[in-house]
Structures are given as C-alpha cells and as structure tokens.
Amino acid sequence: MSIIDKTDAVLEPEAVGFDGPLLDVRDLHVEFHTRDGVAKAVNGVNYSVEAGETLAVLGESGSGKSVTAQAIMGILDMPPGRIPRGEIMFRGQDMLKMSEEQRRRIRGRKIAMIFQDALSSLNPVLSVGYQLGEMYRVHEGLSKKAAKAKAIEMMDRVKIPAAAARVNDYPHQFSGGMRQRIMIAMALALEPELIIADEPTTALDVTVQAQVMDLLAELQREYRMGLILITHDLGVVADVADKIAVMYAGRIVERGPVHELYRNPGHPYTKGLLESIPRLDQKGQELYAIKGLPPNLTRIPSGCAFNPRCPMAQDVCRTDVPPLHPMTAPDGTELVGRASACHFWKETVNG
Amino acid sequence: MSELTSKTDTVVAAQAATTPDAVLATDAGPAPGKPRSLWSDAWYDLRHNWMFLLSTFLILLLLLIAAVPDLFISGSVSPRDGDLTAHYLQSPQMSHLFSAEWFGYDHQGRSIYARVLHGTRASILVGVMVTLVVSLVGGLVGLISGYFGGWVDSVVSRVTDVFFGIPFLLGAMVVLNTFAERSVPVVALALAVLGWTSIARVMRGSVITVKQADYVTAARALGAGTGRILFKHILPNAVAPVIVVATIALGGYITAEATLSFLGIGLTEAISWGQDISSGKDYLRTAQYVLFFPAAMLSVTVLAFLMFGDAVRNALDPKSR
Amino acid sequence: MAELSKNDEQGDTTPNVSEVEVVEARTEAEEVAALEAPVERGEPILQVRNLVKHFPLTQGILFKKSVGAVKAVDGISFDLYQGETLGIVGESGCGKSTVAKLLMNLERATAGEIFYKGQDITKLSGRALKAVRRNIQMVFQDPYTSLNPRMTVGDIIGEPFEIHPEVAPKGDRRKKVQDLLDVVGLNPEYINRYPHQFSGGQRQRIGIARGLALNPEIIICDEPVSALDVSVQAQVINLMEGLQDEFNLSYLFIAHDLSIVRHISDRVGVMYLGKMAEIGTDTQIYDHPTHPYTQALLSAVPVPDPAAREHRERIILTGDVPSPANPPSGCRFRTRCWKAQDKCAEEVPLLAVPERFKNSDTPAAHESACHFAEEKDVVHAA
C-alpha cells in the first residue's frame, strides 16, 4: 500500500490563473494486449469536469468507465494496458506527459480516488487512525500526535460516531458503510481538487447507500471539489449528478445535463436503459429489454458499436462511426451541453 | 491512491478477451468458436511455453534412458564391472558417439558414462513412485478432511502436524536404518511415509476453497450424493494445485534419494547417482570428473522436473504469473 | 415443449423389493405420491411456520464449546401460493439468503416447520427428501460461481437427470437438454461449450435451465439478476416471467433491489434482522407501507428521475444494522427507528394486521410488526 508519496514538495499551480476546466480528458484511448488480440477498452473519450461539479460516468461492465478513471489516476496496469493516444489535462497540463515524480505529486494530493471495495483498499494490519494519520505525517510532516488528532477530526467530519474512541480500531472492526466513510475521509484528507469515486456505494445496502451518497455530496459542496462518479446505477446518477456521460464499448455515446438527458434521451442506448429498469412507484407491464449482449472488446462491431442491439439501426450505422453530434432543439437553438453519438439522434429525441 | 485497485473493468476486458463469444447479439447470444475447457486452455498455454517444451523433451529423454540405458551406450559395457589395470581413473575422451569413454572411468575402472546412464532408472523410479504414493494418499486424506471438516478434519490435521514436525531426511534415515537390504520400493516407501503430509495440506486447503463454491451447493440442492459431489465437482476443481506441488516435489524426492545414497543409507542394490557422488568426492582434487558427471546428471534431472512443474503451475493458475 | 409439462409420474413404482422392505417402501411411496399431487392455483404450496436458524458460535479446536449464536432467522412465517411470486427484500444480514437455504434443505432448521403440500420437509430424509428436491429448485446469484467450470453446459444442465434418472430415460437426455437451452433462449448447439465461454447473462440462463430441468413447481431465486449488467437484467427478468406462465411455477424471489422485486412480485415480505417486518401485496407494501423500516427502505431507493430529487422526502436512517449475534431486545428495528418508545424495547411486536386498521378496508390493513404502525406513502411523495 504505497498510498502516499514521500516527497513533500507541494505542486505549485504552475498555471496560476488557469481558468479552463479542472480536468479535461481528450481523445483518450486505452487498449489491453491479450492472447485473443487487442481489447480496445477506451476508444476516444472526451470529458471535462469543473470545480464543484459532479460528472456521472454511466456504463455497464466493459464500457471502459473504470479504465478511463484508472488512466486518469495513473494506476493502470501497463502492460498489458497501453495508452496509444490521448491527453489528460489537469489544470491545463497533460498528465500523460509528466514524469512519474510529477504524477505522484498530483495523485492523492490533487486527485483522490474512492473505490467500491473499501475493505480491500484499507490495510488490514494497520489501525484506521494510523492509516488516516499517515496522510498528514507524510504529506504535511505532522507529528504522530498531531496526525492522530487530525485523523480524529477527519473521522468526525465523515460522521463516524465516537471517532476518538474508534481511532485505534482496525478496518475489519467497522461495518461496510463505516469503512466506506473512512475511505472518503482518506480521500478528502489532503483536500484534493478532484475526487474520482468508482462505484462508491455499489457494495452497500440501500439505507447505508443513501447515507454515504449524502455525505459525499455534502462534503463536495463544502470543499468545492470536482467529482467524477462512476456507476452503473441510473438511480444514483439521477440523485446526485449535474451532468452525465453515458459510455458504451469505450466511447461516450451521449452526454448532457442530468435533467434533460433523463427527460428526453438522445441515444437509443440511453433510451433503452431508462426504459429497461423497473420502477418503484408503479407496477409496469413487461419490461423493455435491450436485446443482445455488450460487445466483445477485441471485436467491436464496425460502425456504431451499438448497431447490433439497436432497434433503429440502418445500413449507415453498420459502416460509419457516428461522431458525438451537438444536439439542437427542433427550432435550431443549441441544447447546451448535450451531444449524442447517433446518426439518428433527431429521430430518437422526437420518437 | 492505493495500488490495491479494484480492477473491475480491466478484469472484464481481459475476460471478454479470453472469451471469443458475444461479438453480437441476438437474444440467444451466440458464443462462436469451439468448445474450450479449462484443461484445453491450459494445454494451449503449455504448448506455447518454451520452458515446458524443453523440460518435456528432457524428461522424455530421461525416461528413455531409464528404460533402456544400453540404447545410448555403444558396445556392451557393464556399469558394474571395471578393469582396474586398463582404466583406473582414466580421463574422459571424445572418441565416437555414445562411447563408454566419454565421461572417463572411476577408481574401480568402471565407465562413468555407463554408470550415470544406468543410475537414471533408480532415481526416476524413486521419484515417480514417491510422487504417486504421496499424491494418492495425501490427496485422499486431504480430500476427506477438507470436505467433511469437523472432528475428522481436526484429527487428520493433528496427525499431519505430527508428521510435518519430523525432519524429512532425518526421519527417512531412521526408517531406512531398520532395513539391511534397501531396494527401490523400500526407499520410495520411506520417503512417501514422510512426504504425504505436504500434499494432504495442499489438497485440504484447495478442497475447503472449492467446497464453498455455489456449484457445489447447486449439486447438493439437486440431491447429489457425496460421491458425485466429491469426484465430479470438488476433485476436478481442487486437483490443480496438487498436480503442481507434486511435479515440483518429484525433483525434491530425486534429490532426497541421492542424499540418502550419498550418506550410505539409500539404495543398496541399484546403481545410484548418490553413491557415485559419494565415492567421487574422494577424488575431487585429482579427478573431478568422477564427481562431476553424476552430480551434473542429478542437477539436470531435478531442474527438468522443477521447470516442468513451474510451467504447469503457470498454465493452471494464470493469476500467479 | 410438451415433454417439459408435468406428466411423468411413473418412476415411483418399486417392482422388485423384498417382503420386509415393501411395508416401509409403501409408506414412503405414498409419501412421495402425496408430494406429486397437483396443487390448485391460489392454494398455498409452501407454508413456513416459525422458522428459526441459529448458527452456533464456537471456540476451541478439537473440543468445541458454544459461546453464543448468530440468530440468522428468528421465527418467521409466510405462505407461498401456487403460481405466485413472493418477493423477499431486506438488507445484507437480514437472513433472506438463509431462508433460501432452509427451504432448499441445504441447512437444517433449528426450529419451526416448512410444509410443502402439507408435509413438513424439515424432517424428511432419503427418498422422500429427494422427491421434494425435484420439485423445489434454486437459481443462484452469481452466474460465475454457480456453474462448475470443468463441466460442459450439456453436463451441467443434464446433471439433474443423472441424479434423478426416473425423470428422463438416458436416450432422451441430450434432446431434453437441447430443448431446455432453447427454452431459456440459448442456441442448442452450444451444448458442448464450457461456462467461461459465455457472458454473465448467458450463464444465468444456463443456471435457469438447470433449475427447470426436473419440472419443479417452486423455484427459489436468490438475487438472480443482481450480478448482471443493467441492460441484461431486463432480459432475464422477462425470461423468468415468461417461464412462470409457461410452466406454472411459483417463485420465491429474494433480492435487495426493491424496484425489481416490485416488478416481478405478487406479494412482498420485508425482512429485518431475521424477522419479517411487514408482508402484503405489492401495492400494500409499496404504496401503503405501515412499518417504519419499510418506509425508510423505500425512501432510500435512488429513483431514476432527477426531477424527484428535490421533492422526495428522504428518511435517512442513522447507524448500521446491529449484529444478528446480539440483536436488540423487543423490536429489532428500534435502535434505528425514529418512532421508538419504551414499549419497543420491552415488547416484541407481532406480525399481524395493526389494530387500528383491523376493521378498515384500506390497503394499509396488512400484516406489519410494529407497535406504532401508520401508513405513509414515501414513493409517490412528489
């Protein structure tokens, strides 16, 4: 667990006065070399996050949503992974061109990550207080005592009851929800500018899930952090996101502000997903089901990757890869922030 | 942050990649390609592993030597009879293919080449016999104690602990001391008596993991009997680590036999590398080749089995790479 | 699929048994025959009464001594009617999966009865138990671990026939397996493939085919879609609904996803810490919940509608579920309940129609184990 870099040099914002997006991912490609060929996990992803904004990246397993996050964090296994193309701009600087040393200074301090499985992300033989305090001891050079005090403060912050009494407990002594709070505390310890949360509540029970998502949203507002929330749960997204990027087979197929996108999806895949989930407030008839299976990443269909499963597919969908078109209202005005990678987005929106 | 990432998507990508299915997409979801069992996947890995190919070649060669050593010796040369006047400590000479002079002659005028080749049989036999006995006994004990648990497991575990506490070679020496005539089966048995516990432990651990799998529960829910669950569901899924440990241990058993023979309490009847190494040590300063060739043969043999075991492990458990 | 309908009742005649055995065999055969009798639609096919499962906590290596018990299931009762789907929801540790194991006879109940067609199956063994097993099958949560990776799909789906050879003669089996693959929407040609050659959704279909092989009457589904991708979940749910109609199955559908449970269930039971908190029809539970735990659970479910997030009332519970080894006295939910009073710590609330709704006709009149039950619609609060 080398969570922490030993350098104490603070990354000075070289780009003082930079006013672009906090994080800007441009044309990112990631592939994995396997026995059966090259698995193209990410195929040209573009997204950006501003300070204080929540971007939800929605997708199924194999859509490339987690791989993108790992590429941003620089924790991709390489090999077998490879980034043949793309830029990851953090405050205007391309992290892929940085030295390992420079990246380590950003990791944990400027960008932190929260994982799905808190138990395996915490070291089982060290107390949580020690692990939390380590952030302060190593990064800020605090004394053992001061670090512990900070750790208790942080545990209070994430609403762990009786923090002072539990600071010396070990990870397995906490429940799943409490462990996820500790993970959040560790991620927030150095007040990063961006948090990437990869399925942070998937392993938790519904009632605890609500607590943890609330906490995360509250802390994000308080610290004005950028948040990338990676999930497959349409409900969670609807609850917390400002804007959404829907991923399929390593590409963003649709993006837009959460309200508009849910009200009127512009891509058949998004539309199918929204229609295929059962509702809590009414008993529906038979569920709409997207036919078929997510594609094999070593053999992504030509043209639009979704075409074999799409009810609207035409010949053009099998030959031409649709670009991410900006969407406009029927009267021609631009729909701010909305885009769809479908040849027939107009028909999808209106149909 | 943490390097202990949950690599969900990576895993999925890799999974998708090893599965040549699901390019597309009717509801039925075709899975094109031929049926591919996990064993055939492992076989595919092995065939493309130079270490496996090399070690297999060596092992096959050794087996052939063990079966018919005379095939590799030109003329009829007895490994037991020496001619002291003609060949006493004669140095190695490259005359013709498979010549008895290749490795020189020892202090009794015997052909070292012939002795080394004839010694192969005893070493390989001991190694294979110990491995077989140990795998069967240890595997069965491990299977039973791992599956049934409870007091059976407690008793078996304590017994294996006791055996585990006895130093392997020391124990074998004590056992073998009670025999005046020590043939191949006797030595093999002495080693097996002390060796089965390590296999039993590996098997037990493996069975305990496998028996918690849902497919075992599913079989029980169908009403399957203990025999079917043990031999159809648990054994095939639990046996891989045992195969690996057993192949690697085989090399160790060959070394153990040589060590015992070196110490003079190993084989009495057969020609053994250990004995030859033992007698060769006396001429270390004057005729190194007397020691060198049996020792080299022993090393090559052990190395071949270790490499084989390593390759098998990589193929059966791709994650350990 | 005529072969799969329920008409193979032969297999139970025992032609060549000795005199002594006949008496015993006959009673057993009668037992088995009783188990084979059809149940009318709408009649209870499974009745669970005061079911208890405590897992003892032990210490010591050779001589184990008991130091307490995890009360995984602590006295629950419910009926499963022929042809219906009963959903069981609850958070992890509430005992819902243990209920599934008890119904499958994979664990022995500590106390209580499970009546299948009037016969207590917790006491059965041998042939009668095997006959029951034929009629109660299970679909597992994880399609990656529930199929033996070293067996072909044909062997996996055909295994039920090998264990119960009376169901299908040897020559017919391959054909039957292919029919089953077809029924669950897989290509029958894949009979010789291995599980790892399929995706999660396809594997779950294989698991369902195995569950259907013996023409069961009841299928226990333990989180059958929670491991699947969103776009594949709907396919599997639709398949299961279709199969229910086709083969007249009764489902016990255990899940933590409340939306899916509502979609598929006729009735729903809510479990908390080994007890049933509330049980009723889907409308009663979802639109007219009276137990505070149900209300909190429903209000916590993220709804895929961003417009609702400003309007919906959220009941955020504090704290975690207490340990089932040491549950709170009285009402088990009281430590997290906002209504809790002294009475809740002293008296265990019984699962019954609350007094105040007893004579009313409202949907709130359903069984709820709360001293202070009152109706509160948290789902349509907008």
Automatic annotation (TrEMBL), chain A:
It is a peripheral membrane protein. It comes from the Bacteria. Coiled coil: none annotated. Pfam families: ABC_tran, oligo_HPY. Keywords: ATP-binding, Cell membrane, Membrane, Nucleotide-binding, Transport. It is found in: Cell membrane. GO terms for molecular function: ATP binding; ATP hydrolysis activity. Its main location: membrane. Residues 25-274 form the ABC transporter domain. Belongs to the ABC transporter superfamily. This is Peptide/nickel transport system ATP-binding protein/oligopeptide transport system ATP-binding protein. The lineage of its organism: Bacteria, Bacillati, Actinomycetota, Actinomycetes, Kitasatosporales.
